[in-house]
Amino acid sequence: MKKVIILGGGISKERLISLETARSVFKSLKKNKKYKSIISEPDEDFFKKVQTFKPDIVFNALHGQFGEDGSIQTILELEGIKYTHSGPIASSLAMDKELSKLIFIKNKILTPRYIILKNDAYFHKKKLINQIVKKLGFPVVIKPTNEGSSVNVFICNKNNFFNKIKKLKFYDEVLIEEFIGGREIQAAILGNRKLGAIELKPRRKFYDYKAKYSVSAKTEHIIPVDLTKKNYDRLMNISIKAHKLLGCKGVSRSDFKFYKNRFYLLETNTQPGMTNLSLVPEIARFCGMSFINLIRWIINDASIKR
């Protein structure tokens, strides 16, 4: 019997989704006699639980800041505790949207053009607008450089740009990215295996937080994705290339826009959700891999990789 502590909750804006992931993993493991598991917050009681429960593995179900940016990974490594998903460096690189873009660009992976906005640049409105028009054009996408799950992501035109960006003024840095139209496609990698892909057709402007996590948003999930074999292979090859360049372990999910026969890599997620609306479990299920077998694979991978 393997003992598993499932880390869920945390302090990020994705806390509720993290708890959903943790509960989904716990419910699945509870049905399997090979595992004994508990859910824990990453708080002051966590290490007390480690001492008393003596886990073989920590399943990292945290999302967002502190959970998938390399912070908790560093702490777990310092304590010599085995854990799931990517390590500190890969986690921090993937979470930082500018650093990951620089890696993609250097390695000839197509990604939308961008500008990084520092806090002090808010006061130079005319200069900023001119820079956006010259380098990116409108509309643009604005988002924090270090959030996940499309938290505080907005599509802006020239007229509403400053109204929208005021909502992000508490972040030190904001990514301003050219808007790429076309199809939303996401691809999953499992270790060194190209697991598969799924297309999303949100009824909202784009695949934002509500489209991802609300049943009422009625986002259409399309699998298999309608691509030629050549394009499908291109998609999966880019995904595994990004996975390896960032140094990811276990599962990753890369998010793309497919426009005019070109794949634009938006970002790579090192800790995809494991809720009933999450994409990686859906892709795995389509490929013949049940949810419990996906969770077992992730746990076994954490046991041998470090």
Shape: globular
Strand runs, count: 12
The oligomerization state is single chain
Helicity level, as a percent range? Answer: 25-40%
Helix and strand sequence: EHEHEHHHEHEEHEEEHEHEEHH
Radius of gyration: 19 Å
Q: Number of DSSP helices?
A: 11
Distance between the termini: 20 Å
Mean pLDDT: 90
CATH architecture annotation name of the largest domain: 2-Layer Sandwich
| CATH level 1 name of the largest domain | Alpha Beta
The low-pLDDT segments are none
CATH homologous superfamily annotation of the largest domain: ATP-grasp fold, B domain
Largest sheet: 5 strands, antiparallel
By CATH, the topology of the largest domain is D-amino Acid Aminotransferase, Chain A, domain 1
Number of domains: 3
